[in-house]
Amino acid sequence: MKSIPPSEELRARAQRLADRLGNEAFYLGYCFRSGMFGIEPPRRLAQLVRAFNDYGMLGAGHRCRCDSPSEQPAVIDEHGH
């Protein structure tokens, strides 16, 4: 069994972390541009951070939109709003 040198493993972990952070930043920007959320008061910002921590990017997007004071529907499917 071939072992991976610690420096290679550390480099691979750093690359995976950088990739994840880049993806999260991209989708966060996408959500901001789409109007899912914008400039928020501190209390709402804490709720958004908690949702992203609890549900990840995909689940938090729906949660953020549902909690939004907007009149637009959060989710539309074959059953309606």
Structure description:
By secondary structure, the protein is mostly helical. The protein has one domain. Helices cover 67% and strands 0% of the residues. The protein contains 2 helices and no strands. It has helices at residues 6-34, 42-66. The longest helix has 29 residues, at 6-34. The model has no long low-confidence stretch (mean pLDDT 76).
Key structural traits:
mainly alpha, elongated, single chain, 81 residues
Please give a quick description of this structure:
This protein has helices spanning 6-34, 42-66.
Secondary structure tally: strands: 0
Query: What kind of sheet is the major sheet?
Result: none
Unreliable spans are: none
Helix and strand succession?
A: HH
What is the molecular shape?
Answer: elongated
SS class: mainly alpha
Q: What Rg do the Cα atoms give?
A: 18 Å
The amount of helix comes to 55-70%
How many domains would you count in the coordinates?
Answer: 1
Span between termini: 56 Å
**Percent of residues in beta strands?**
under 5%
Tell me, rounded to a whole number, the average pLDDT. 76
Number of helices: 2
Secondary structure blueprint with pairings:
Blueprint lengths: L5 H29 L7 H25 L15
